[in-house]
């Protein structure tokens, strides 16, 4: 049989297998319907074996699939880091190349200056005037004294977002500004261009754009928060634009620095009166004003470097530059040039803070988790904005938690949904707490804000929890299991010193109290309904299996002496009403102890007392009304079971679960007394 199955398997797995031809041959070779049925059974068996093997392979390789996915994720992260390192290395190489080219350019400029006489500023101004006559709307450009033309040429402007051509422009670079003019479609005499924009050299930064064919020979001008991209005619002209723009910005900075140094007032010693010859004049110390050296290249380029760092999202580099400047000026006198430099830097600091605040806004992507905010938070703290960083960090995490809860799919099984909800919320809270402790380790004043935020987040969790567990009218057993799961997850937060158990309990106490009272009312109504139909007859369970099952249930409830109430065959010497009442009372106690915390002590105790009182009153009423001696004896036997067996077990389990005795239940049992167990006995309830 096995050989036949193997041959059939090989035939079906063959690449040249033809199903139509196979069925035709099978029909010709079959003797009747029985052969076809047997063959069909073989194919079905083969299909079942194949499906079983496929399922085993899936289970066998499932863990490998998960591990492979993790490895791919790790590899992706390493590749991203490697790409970042290569980008940094490339930028360093480009800066070195630019520095070498700048050195060669300076030497070439010196040689050209020695070989050819330099054009005077008057000649440059005349050239600028001649060119500006061709530009419409810029008559006031030449009103600034000392302004002259450095370089000009045609460029093509591209859209920053989609890299599409916008327009053709002509750029005029002057010694203190850059003029952008657009071409006129219809020339009017000598006028060929129209004024578009004028930028001060200190207000923008120039960035080289990497060639990406067909987009090449481009450079970008950054005016935070805007930017413009221009394309030169070829790479040589692009290089000239970049070099001349850089050189012109440096020349302007040097000229302004020298002008400020010349404007510093100096008190000549020779103008002071001779103190030695005038006895009525007291000697005054000569005030020597210390001049801060701001001629260093990195200080001159600091505002522009900050603009570039902000535009390129190099927040760490920007803050490093600010720290370097602060360290340099720490012990220096505050002179007017220093104030001017600080005013320029402060404007960049405000821009940097605005960008970092935007990075932490809840509107940004929330997929990265708490670690995704670390970069912006750390830089805000370094800038002295720890309070703002704390506020934005917590707002960001609150939005992330709320989004995760909102996206959680509501399953049909409530307990399954609560498991997922607790896993998402408490895991997010734990990660947020660890990240907060790492980011704000040196800012202990922010921890109170985190505690307040944790309580707010817990309230958001309880709202979602109560809506699914209590508002949907789940059973008390389901609610108890759900609350137990939430407590277990909440206790995990104590690993990091965060205890929110009391907060969770205080937020849930109202809903749990309502659930206990609602379930108590259900048990009381069901007990009263059974009492109204009570016939005081012994239970007949019909089968030994049913009797064993009832004994097992009573043992699980803590009633080990239940066997003394069982009779011959399948009889139980108790009424159906008393047995059902015992089951419901024990189940209510078990679920109530799972939900228990100190604020619910009296609620649970009073609920148990009211339920027990219903059964006691029914037994008392039946004893007083029953005239049949046999039934009266049977009622007393049920009463004995309640008082001597059930109530002591209730008191013991309540004390074990709560930690203190149930005085009200003891008083209830002691206040009800049984008199001689005989047909003439009666029972009263106080």
Write a concise keyword list for the protein shown above:
686 residues; alpha+beta; two-stranded antiparallel sheet; 20 helices; 62% helix; 11% strand; elongated; disordered C terminus
Structural overview:
The structure is a single chain. The protein has 686 residues and is an alpha+beta fold. 62% of the residues lie in helices and 11% in strands. The chain contains 20 helices and twelve strands. The strands form three sheets. It has an eight-stranded mixed sheet, with helices on both faces. α7 runs parallel beside α9. The chain is elongated and about 135 Å long. The two termini are 82 Å apart. Keywords: Cell projection, Cytoplasm, Exocytosis, Protein transport, Transport.
Short structural description:
This protein is of the alpha+beta class.
List the helices and strands and how they pair.
Layout lengths: L1 H12 L5 H11 L3 H83 L5 H12 L2 E2 L12 E10 L6 E10 L2 E12 L2 E10 L4 E4 L9 E6 L2 E6 L3 H29 L33 H4 L1 H10 L3 H14 L7 H24 L14 H9 L3 H22 L6 H26 L7 H23 L6 H16 L9 H32 L5 E3 L3 H13 L14 E5 H20 L5 H25 L3 H30 L4 H9 E3 L8 E3 L1
Parallel strand pairs: 1-5
Antiparallel strand pairs: 2-3, 2-8, 3-4, 4-5, 6-7, 7-8, 9-10, 11-12
Shape: elongated
Number of strands: 12
Assembly state = single chain
Total helical elements: 20
Any low-confidence stretches, pLDDT <50, length ≥5? 266-288, 673-686
Please tell me how large the radius of gyration is: 45 Å
The main pleated sheet reads as: 8 strands, mixed
Sheet-strand content, in percent, reads 5-15%
- Strand order in the largest sheet: 1-5-4-3-2-8-7-6
Structural class: alpha+beta
Mean pLDDT across the residues is 79
> Which bin fits the share of residues in helices?
55-70%
Separation, N- and C-terminal Cα atoms: 82 Å
């Amino acid at each position: 049989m096995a050989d036949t199955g193997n041959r059939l398997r090989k035939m079906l797995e063959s690449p040249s297998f033809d199903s139509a031809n196979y069925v035709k041959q099978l029909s010709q070779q079959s003797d009747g319907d029985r052969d076809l049925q047997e063959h069909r059974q073989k194919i079905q068996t083969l299909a079942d074996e194949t499906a079983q093997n496929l399922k085993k392979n899936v289970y066998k390789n499932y863990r490998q699939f998960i591990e492979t996915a993790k490895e791919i994720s790790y590899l992706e992260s390493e590749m991203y880091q490697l790409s970042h390192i290569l980008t940094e290395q490339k930028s360093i190489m480009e800066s070195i190349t630019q520095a070498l080219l700048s050195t060669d350019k300076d030497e070439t400029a010196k040689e050209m200056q020695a070989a050819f006489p330099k054009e005077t500023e008057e000649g440059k101004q005349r050239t600028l005037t001649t060119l500006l006559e061709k530009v419409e709307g810029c008559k006031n450009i030449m009103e600034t004294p000392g302004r002259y033309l450095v370089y000009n040429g045609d460029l093509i402007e591209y859209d920053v977002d989609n890299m599409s051509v916008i327009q053709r422009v002509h750029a005029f670079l002057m010694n203190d500004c850059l003029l952008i003019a657009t071409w006129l479609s219809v020339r009017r005499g000598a006028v060929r261009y129209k004024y578009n924009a004028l930028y001060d050299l200190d207000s923008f930064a120039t960035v080289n754009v990497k060639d990406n064919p067909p987009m090449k020979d481009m450079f970008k001008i950054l005016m935070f928060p805007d930017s413009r991209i221009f394309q030169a005619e070829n790479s040589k002209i692009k290089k000239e634009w970049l070099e001349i723009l850089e050189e012109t910005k440096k020349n302007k900075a040097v000229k302004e620095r020298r002008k400020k140094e010349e404007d510093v007032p100096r008190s000549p010693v020779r103008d002071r009166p001779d103190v030695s010859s005038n006895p009525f004049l007291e000697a005054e110390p000569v005030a020597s004003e210390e001049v801060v050296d701001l001629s260093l290249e990195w200080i001159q380029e600091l505002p522009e470097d900050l603009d570039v760092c902000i535009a390129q999202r190099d927040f760490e580099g920007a803050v490093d530059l600010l720290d370097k400047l602060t360290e340099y000026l720490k012990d220096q006198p505050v002179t007017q040039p220093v104030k001017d430099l600080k005013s320029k830097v402060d404007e960049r600091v405000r821009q940097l803070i605005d960008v970092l605040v935007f990075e932490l806004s809840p509107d940004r992507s929330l997929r990265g988790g708490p670690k995704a905010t670390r970069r912006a938070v750390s830089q805000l703290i370094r800038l002295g904005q720890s309070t703002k960083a704390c506020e934005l960090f917590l707002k960001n995490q609150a939005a992330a938690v709320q989004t995760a809860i909102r996206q959680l799919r509501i399953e049909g099984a409530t307990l399954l949904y609560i498991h997922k909800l607790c896993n998402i919320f408490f895991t997010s809270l734990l990660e947020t707490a660890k990240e907060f402790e790492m980011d704000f380790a040196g800012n202990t004043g922010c921890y109170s804000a985190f505690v307040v935020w944790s309580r707010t987040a817990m309230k958001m969790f309880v709202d979602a929890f109560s809506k699914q567990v209590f508002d949907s009218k789940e059973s008390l057993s389901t609610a108890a299991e759900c609350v137990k799961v939430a407590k277990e997850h909440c206790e995990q937060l104590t690993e990091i010193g965060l205890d929110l158990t009391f907060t969770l309990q205080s937020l849930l106490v109202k809903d749990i109290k309502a659930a206990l009272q609602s379930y108590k009312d259900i048990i009381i109504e069901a007990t009263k309904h059974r009492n109204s139909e009570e016939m005081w007859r012994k239970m007949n369970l019909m089968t030994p299996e049913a009797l064993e099952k009832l004994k097992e249930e009573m043992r699980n409830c803590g009633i080990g002496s239940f066997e003394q109430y069982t009779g011959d065959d399948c009889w139980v010497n108790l009424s159906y009403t008393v047995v059902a009442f015992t089951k419901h009372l024990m189940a209510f106690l078990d679920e109530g102890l799972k939900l228990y915390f100190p604020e619910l002590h009296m609620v649970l105790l009073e609920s148990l007392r009211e339920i027990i009182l219903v059964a006691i009153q029914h037994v008392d009423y039946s004893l007083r009304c029953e005239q049949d001696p046999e039934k009266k004896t049977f009622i007393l036997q049920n009463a004995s079971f309640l008082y001597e067996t059930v109530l002591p077990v209730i008191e013991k389990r309540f004390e074990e679960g709560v930690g203190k005795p149930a005085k009200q239940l003891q008083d209830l049992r002691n206040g009800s007394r049984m008199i001689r167990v005989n047909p003439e006995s009666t029972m009263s309830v106080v």
